[in-house]
Design a protein that fits this description.
single chain; 240 residues; Heat Shock Protein 90; 2 domains; five-stranded mixed β-sheet; two-stranded antiparallel sheet; 9 helices
């Protein structure tokens, strides 16, 4: 930086009345020498790019910090009306390190989705579990191509629906029958506790009076569908 500023200083000296007298050819040679030593053409090209990348990085960090703040929203024992689309976006950002190297995420979130009676911190945990499971299933595939995770939200008069699909390895029928059992896992030791789906089902079914279902084709992919009641009274039954 100091060397770069010396170019500016050299030009500034040309209008400094107290600068030593110097012929134009001598002054020109001095400035040209500085420009060559600094590789000025390279710096002139790279500095705008570096500034742009820094601003983009700052924007990404701001987005992640904001998402983490929303994701870590203090839990509540009572259902409250929540924007589940926003919660999904925050959770996907928070867990990006788990999926970004193996998959791309496509989100088709219904912007007309009404507020949903929700335990938002626990809902975030369900989305986190399902997205990371999808990323793990994609990582197990053979081949170097990135996989795809898709999240779709929609609603009817009574239900908010969230579909999370992937094109990972899929789940065998023999596993689907057991996958909500506590501590059941097909992952290697140290890579899974077998609690994620059991906890997710408890949150959706018992705490929100909703439903969770799974469709999977072994070797092709999996779709999890969550349904949460849109009416506060319907959801309260499960937590009363």
């Amino acid at each position: 930086m100091a060397a770069f500023l010396s170019v500016i200083d050299s030009y500034a000296e040309q209008i400094d009345p107290n600068a030593p007298a110097m012929g134009w050819q001598e002054r020109n040679a001095e400035i040209q020498d500085i420009l060559v030593r600094l590789d000025y053409d390279f710096i002139r090209e790279e500095i705008p790019l570096a500034l742009t990348q820094s601003l983009e990085g700052l924007e990404r960090i701001t987005k992640i910090v904001g998402a983490m703040k929303e994701f870590s929203h203090p839990g509540s024992a009572e259902l409250a009306m929540a924007d589940i689309n926003r919660a999904i976006e925050s959770t996907v950002t928070v867990c990006s390190n788990r999926w970004k190297h193996v998959a791309s995420i496509e989100m088709a979130l219904d912007r007309e989705m009404p507020a949903v009676p929700c335990l938002i911190a626990e809902f975030n945990q369900v989305i986190l579990n399902l997205v990371t499971n999808a990323a793990d299933a994609i990582a197990e595939r053979q081949g170097a191509d990135k996989g795809r995770i898709q999240i779709i939200t929609s609603y009817t008069d009574e239900w908010a629906e969230i579909k999370i699909s992937d094109n990972g390895t899929g789940i065998p029928d023999s596993v689907i029958a057991k996958m909500y059992d506590p501590f059941f896992t097909t992952k290697e030791v140290g890579k899974g506790t077998g609690q994620g789906l059991a906890i997710s089902r408890d949150i959706v079914v018992n705490k929100h009076n909703g439903s969770i279902s799974c469709e999977s084709v072994h070797g092709e992919g999996t779709v999890f569908t969550l349904r949460l009641p849109l009416k506060m009274g319907s959801a309260v039954k499960a937590v009363a």
